[in-house]
């Protein structure tokens, strides 16, 4: 569990509506802080600063957000990415209290023996497909884990799997994701290839354009009205689930 203090300084934001696009073109990211049912605080900060903060904190590490003379302890609730260039276009911070439990998404990894860089199944030429990258947990902000692990050495033969119930969970942390949710499964390469071919058999040229159109970002001109709602009743969704900005 990381004890590092992560902080970022953001500026109050008066620009709204169509002006948000100009902010983004100038290398800034509009954001909002939802503070326990109080009026939302609209802010802005440099894209690079916000990107680095997200890379360090993810959605499960408290962030000290400084705005003028005030400091808010927050978690990143939602982050919106542009569908084409993957730049961050909007961030929602939720203010949290040190003595109140919060929910957060925590990454899950397979734990292997120090001498091994892969599971027994992978060393035997099988494929381990990871079905989930995160789980939802509940804990006090100080107790939020950086990552949760399961024993990767149990993945040996075709059909072996790891579920949420296999995670090693520290004291003070409750996993909210169903314990039967599969995290990783062992497959025979040929069987997995056949399944992929079957799933893609109906695809036709040009279909990728339809997919892109359906995932256009909505965090452009009309975010301000939703930001004004007390307590953040309207939340922003990550338009590219599973994307990791650290790879930019």
List the helices and strands and how they pair.
Elements: E1 6-12, H1 19-25, E2 28-34, E3 41-46, H2 47-57, E4 63-67, E5 70-81, E6 88-95, E7 102-111, H3 120-123, E8 127-130, E9 134-139, E10 148-151, E11 161-163, E12 174-175, E13 182-187, H4 189-200, H5 207-214, H6 223-227
Parallel strand pairs: 1-4, 2-6, 7-10
Antiparallel strand pairs: 1-3, 2-3, 4-5, 5-6, 7-9, 8-13, 9-12, 11-13
Tag the structure with descriptive keywords.
248 residues, Ribosomal Protein L25, Chain P, RNA Polymerase Alpha Subunit, Chain A, domain 2, 2 domains, 6-stranded mixed β-barrel, 4-stranded mixed β-sheet, 13 strands, 32% strand, globular
CATH topology of the largest domain: RNA Polymerase Alpha Subunit, Chain A, domain 2
Q: How many distinct domains?
A: 2
Query: Order of SSEs, N→C?
Result: EHEEHEEEEHEEEEEEHHH
CATH architecture name of the largest domain: Beta Complex
Low-confidence stretches: 202-226, 232-244
Strand content: 25-35%
Tally of alpha and pi helices: 6
CATH superfamily of the largest domain, by name, is Ribosomal protein L25, C-terminal domain
* Overall outline: globular
Q: In CATH, what is the class of the largest domain?
A: Mainly Beta
Strand runs, count: 13
Largest sheet: 6 strands, mixed, barrel
Which strands sit side by side, in order, in the main sheet?
1-3-2-6-5-4
Distance between the termini: 25 Å
* Mean pLDDT across every amino acid position: 82
């Amino acid at each position: 569990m990381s004890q590092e203090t992560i902080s970022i300084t953001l500026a109050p934001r008066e620009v709204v509506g169509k002006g948000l696009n100009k902010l983004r073109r100038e290398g800034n990211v509009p954001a909002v802080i939802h503070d326990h049912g109080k009026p939302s605080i609209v802010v802005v900060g440099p894209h690079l600063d916000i990107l680095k903060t997200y890379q360090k904190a993810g959605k499960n590490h408290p962030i000290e957000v400084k705005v003028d003379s005030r400091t808010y302890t927050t978690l990143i609730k939602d982050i919106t990415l542009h569908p084409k260039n993957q730049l961050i276009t909007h961030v929602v911070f939720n203010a949290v209290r040190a003595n109140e439990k919060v929910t957060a998404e925590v990454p899950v990894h397979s734990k292997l023996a120090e001498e091994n860089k892969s599971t027994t199944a992978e060393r035997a030429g099988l494929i381990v497909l990871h079905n989930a990258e995160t789980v939802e947990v509940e804990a006090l902000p100080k107790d939020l884990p950086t990552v949760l692990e399961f024993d990767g050495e149990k993945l040996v033969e075709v059909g072996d799997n790891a579920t949420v119930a296999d995670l090693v969970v520290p004291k003070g942390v409750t996993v909210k994701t169903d314990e039967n949710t599969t995290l990783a499964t062992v497959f025979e390469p040929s069987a997995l290839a056949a399944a992929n071919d079957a799933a893609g058999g109906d695809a036709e040229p040009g279909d990728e354009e339809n997919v892109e159109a359906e995932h256009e970002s909505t965090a452009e001109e009309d975010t301000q009205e939703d930001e004004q709602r007390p307590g953040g009743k309207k939340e922003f969704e990550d338009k590219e689930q599973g994307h990791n900005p650290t790879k930019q």
